[in-house]
Amino acid sequence: MNPIQKFFDKIEPLFEKGGKYEKYYTLYEGHRTILFRPKLVTGKKGVQVRDANDLKRTMITVVIAMIPCLLFGIWNIGHQHFLAIGETATFLQKIGIGAMQALPIVIVSYAVGLGTEFTICVIRNHPVNEGYLVTGMLIALIMPPSIPLWQVALATVFAVVIAKEVFGGTGMNVLNVALTARAFLYFAYPTDISGEVWTYLGDAAVVDGYSGATALGVAYDTALNGTGSVVSAFGNYWAEGMYSFSNMFLGAIPGSIGETSTLLALVGALILIITGVGSWKIIVSVFAGAWLMGLGFNAIGVNAFMDMPAHYHLVIGGLAFGAVFMATDPVSASHTETGKWIYGLLIGVLTVIIRVVNPAYPEGIMLAILLMNVFAPLIDHYVVESNKKRRLKRATV
Amino acid sequence: MSHTIKLKKGFDINLAGKAEKSISKAPKPETFAIKPTDFPAITRPKLLVEEGDSVKAGTPLIYDKMAENVMYCSPVSGEVAEIRRGEKRKLLEIRILADKEVEFEDFGSHSKSDINSLDVEKAKELMLKSGVWPNLVQRPYGIVANPEDKPKAIFISAFDTHPLAPDYNFTFKEEEEAFAAGLEIIKKFTDGKVHVNISEDREMLKMFSQAEGVQINRFSGKHPSGNVGVQIHHIDPINKGEVAWTIKPLGVIQIGKLFLNGKYDASRKVALTGSEVKEPQYYDTYAGASIKNIIKDNIKSDHVRYVSGNVLTGERIDADGYLGFYDEQITVVPEGDFEELLGWIKPTTSKLSFHRAIGLLSFLNKKKEYVLNTNTNGEERAFVMTGEFEKVLPMDILPNYLFKAIMAEDFDEMEALGIFELVEEDVALCEFIDVSKHELQILLRKGINLMING
């Protein structure tokens, strides 16, 4: 027998009923089941063998799909930093700065989130669920690189307790937990999550003409008081080529840690789709909805932002990241297959509407997903009703 | 009609241990048992025999207080050796110590023309008292058919797509006459059609593909295309207030033999299958056989699970347990009651998965035969993933919503979402692939019982 198993067996009595740490059994079990697949077997009646997949593996698949975005984000923080202060730097220097900014955020998100989860599991005496493996990474990736760590911690506690646990824990939440964390910060500490926070500057002085605006900010300003088209405004940005279409697709632009690169979000999408963990229907329909709405605005064409070519909407802001990792959250999304098409399409449409029309908040995907989270059960309701109706109609024929 | 219904959804569980097409000469089982628990309809079983009584094949052993004319009879002749009861004196097994040669109750034989002209009430009476009636199963609910009903149609699936299922081409190749006679009888019970559903993907015996006076339907696709419930859904679905009957080919054959020979002949070829069997092959025996002699000296290790039936819908039995009434298969798989270091994340090609989550590589090799053990590969969790069950249930049904309606005990929802169309075997694949590891077949039966009793 493995020595670790022996150790667990030795301490098990402490956590069992009547043991000294009986209250903490879920903690003990949670740790043991992370190291070992448990020895549970199938029941007397019903399936006698089970599929090799479980929720843990499903969740870790999503985390792995996010790793390219995280790694790129780490590099990009450094890249943006040196660009803004006008210094040249090596690849390793960029990684170094990026890691110093990003990793503490990841660590705080996981430590605080898991701490909260474990505490609630002990209080309510239910097993530790795997959901936070994904949420923890998501929260970190949608934070600006300059976010104070205490805010990350606060947002995480808020999201886990208010968005998830009060609804009954993993599988029961209505809203996407990670987006709730970001929405909390947006409303509670707006100055730290909007404006010039998307590039980590440190104490260094910025180069002449530096502007911390994101592509969405530039587009919105152009529509408000600029002259010419959004695309030409992108071309005249302080750093040349920064907001070219290809650069925005690749992701070397200011933004949240993990959400700037459309390319790497698509790599994640590929992993999720091949593994079947994420719904391709939702991913495709979010992109389709955003593009169609972009075309719609092109047709109206009242201001420069509306005139921006529709495909730009797909690479600016966090649309790709949101579509791939947030909208596909199976719990808060539509549960029916038909519903997923409608759900995704409306997220795409709403994202572009919020971006272009709403003056207060340029990033639309977060609010669009949270809004559609609320409407997902309604969409499902009508899909289920139509299924029931088909069944009823059949009876009279 | 040569219309073929192609089913794209589903999943074939390709297990090691397929039965060779040969009959073993292993010593005959010494004891046999009738298990009231095989019949979900029996709620108040009444015993007709006592320990020590001698019985013949076809002697009634029990009946249900709620359906008094359906007799459940002894499959062999011999002496009632033991009546086993469980908690609250629940009747579990009536064990018969078998004679060397089986003696049969005589129910009077019929010629072919007698069978054709036989009155339906007379046929019913004979079937009820002789023990063959429980072969008729009604939908909705998947319980023994109520003799008072007139079903809108009768459905027979002539092939079995379950893992390692017996090959009907082999087991029934000499039963042509009995099958035809059985069909003649069955046809009398409905004004609608009798449907014989055959597979487009595999060879079929002529007695199925060219059965006379019935509707032949062709199906193609992975498991569960052989499930009669799935077939009914695509041919003539069951609506509220309607009753259809289903019967397995073995049941039709038993009915045919009853009328041709005047005997309750519960004999059958049983496939002993699974990765832990040294020489998987077929056995000649009767319903309710003790598996003790069948498995003797033919099992690779002693840490195994014996299953009456297949690994999707079967029931765990002991090494000296008994074959279920409807089962034609015994499966032996390794027990999985051990921990595995990082088993939830390790990449593997040796475990089978419908999914392709990180590290699960079985989808790369669809031909491979897998050795699966009984480990659940994870703990029970809340429903999280969506859209998965729909991929293995080729029906216009939303299983997730149905399961939630059952949990909520919402009768109207259960009905509207299609509980009338399902029995356990139809959701078995959902249970297999469920990453949240719920016992969905037990849950479905709970819902069905609510519908029956509510």
Provide the low-confidence segments of chain A as ranges. Answer: none
> Structural class of the helices, strands and pairings of chain A?
mainly alpha
Number of helices of chain A: 17
* Straight-line N-to-C gap of chain A: 65 Å
Give start-end ranges of low-pLDDT stretches of chain B: none
The global form of chain A is globular
Largest sheet report of chain B: 7 strands, mixed
The largest β sheet of chain A comes out as: none
Radius of gyration of chain A: 23 Å
Instruction: Find the biggest chain interface.
Output: A-B, 60 and 76 residues
Global outline of chain B: globular
List SSEs of chain A in N-to-C order. HHEHHHHHHHHHHHHHHH
Count of DSSP-assigned helices of chain B: 12
Count of extended strands of chain B:
21
Mean of all residue-level pLDDT scores of chain A: 91
Number of separate strands of chain A: 1
Summed up, what is this model?
The complex is a heterodimer of chains A (397) and B (454). Chain A is an all-alpha fold and 397 residues long.
